[in-house]
């Protein structure tokens, strides 16, 4: 095919039909795209520009109600991959939705869907086929140098699905309340290996900057953490805020969340990476079959 025809909308539409969804499996999407375009950087750039123009022309679907998203999470059977993919599409591709988490007279917490989640592309397990990777579920790898949690502590989840960023509003005075919600570097995830699907907060050590690039950051205990959780005594980058997603209800308060963080929070320095599909499915099958 000559270079003129390779830059046509029809050519790019044909390529688009052959690609897997990037929301479902980003690695497979890029691998397939590179195979179809070959070693042609100009073609890659042209395709990216064409795809961006198509997305701008596509009207955004109406947002999924927060109650419906929370219901999907509660009802999610993680043994059924198509349901995990469907939830991922709602969280990643849908309009940003604010899911109420906890509120009292001093603070209000919400989980806002959409945007970039944990940077799982930093590390990928060695596999012979991209189909051996699961793009929807993140594996949290703990550095071996860190001591393991005591037997009485809640174990850090290995396989999680992230679904939104923690935002907060300080209601203690009119000035701070008028500033609205502020984003934190904590991301809400569920442990997919148990039917209870506990809810955790995981600190994002490599968040997006305003330009859309990932930049490493340090755990900000005295700044962000103290502003969001004034009653949390210790530094933490992971904490189980709900022992079961089914405990997520209208009666939650920020003090209840802080109390849970004081009980389960720790510095674990988890490294997010893409899950090996077969290891993940074996872990899910083992725990869900109990």
What order do the helices and strands come in, and which of them pair?
Elements: H1 3-6, H2 9-18, H3 26-37, H4 41-57, H5 66-75, H6 81-93, E1 98-103, E2 107-112, E3 133-141, E4 159-170, H7 174-178, E5 182-191, E6 199-203, H8 221-228, E7 238-242, H9 254-264, E8 271-276, H10 277-288
Antiparallel strand pairs: 1-2, 2-4, 3-4, 3-8, 4-5, 5-6, 6-7
Write up this protein.
By secondary structure, the protein is an alpha+beta fold. The chain has 2 domains: 3-57, no CATH class; 66-288, no CATH class. The protein contains 10 helices and 8 strands. It has helices spanning 3-6, 9-18, 26-37, 41-57, 66-75, 81-93, 174-178, 221-228, 254-264, 277-288, and strands at 98-103, 107-112, 133-141, 159-170, 182-191, 199-203, 238-242, 271-276. Strands 1, 2, 3, 4, 5, 6, 7 and 8 form an 8-stranded antiparallel sheet that branches. The model is unreliable at 1-5 (pLDDT under 50).
Short description:
This protein has ten helices and eight strands.
- Indicate the mean pLDDT: 82
> How many discrete structural domains?
2
Classify the helix fraction into a percent range: 25-40%
Runs in which pLDDT lies below 50 for 5 or more consecutive residues are 1-5
N- and C-termini, Cα separation: 56 Å
Largest sheet: 8 strands, antiparallel
Shape: globular
Question: Helical element count?
Answer: 10
- Give the H and E element order: HHHHHHEEEEHEEHEHEH
Assembly of the depicted chains: single chain
Query: By helix and strand content, what is the structural category?
Result: alpha+beta
Strand content: 15-25%
What is the C-alpha radius of gyration, as a whole number of Å?
A: 21 Å
For the secondary structure, the number of strands is: 8
């Amino acid at each position: 095919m000559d270079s003129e025809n390779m830059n046509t909308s029809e050519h790019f539409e044909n390529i688009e039909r052959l690609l897997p969804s990037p929301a479902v499996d980003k690695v497979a999407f890029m691998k397939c795209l590179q195979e179809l375009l070959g070693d042609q950087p100009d073609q890659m750039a042209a395709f990216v520009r064409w795809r961006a123009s198509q997305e701008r022309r596509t009207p955004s679907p109406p947002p999924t109600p927060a109650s419906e998203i929370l219901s999907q999470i509660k009802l999610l059977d993680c043994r059924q991959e198509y349901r995990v993919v469907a939830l991922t599409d709602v969280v990643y591709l849908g309009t940003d939705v604010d899911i109420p988490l906890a509120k009292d007279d001093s603070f209000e917490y919400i989980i806002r869907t959409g945007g970039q989640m944990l940077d799982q592309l930093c590390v990928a397990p060695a596999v012979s086929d991209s189909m051996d990777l699961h793009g929807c579920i993140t594996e949290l790898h703990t550095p071996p140098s860190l001591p393991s949690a005591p037997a009485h502590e809640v174990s850090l989840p290995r396989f999680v699905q992230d679904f939104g960023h923690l935002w907060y509003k300080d209601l203690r005075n009119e000035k701070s309340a008028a500033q609205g919600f502020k984003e934190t570097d904590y991301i809400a995830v569920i442990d997919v290996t148990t039917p209870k699907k506990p809810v955790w907060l995981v600190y994002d050590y490599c968040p997006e900057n305003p330009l859309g690039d990932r930049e490493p950051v340090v755990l900000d205990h005295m700044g962000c953490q103290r502003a969001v959780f004034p009653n949390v005594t210790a530094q933490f980058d992971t904490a189980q805020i709900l022992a079961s997603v089914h405990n997520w209800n209208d009666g939650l308060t920020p003090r209840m969340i802080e109390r849970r963080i004081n009980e389960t929070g720790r510095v674990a320095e988890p490294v997010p990476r893409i899950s090996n599909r077969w290891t993940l499915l074996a872990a899910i099958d083992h725990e869900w079959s109990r």
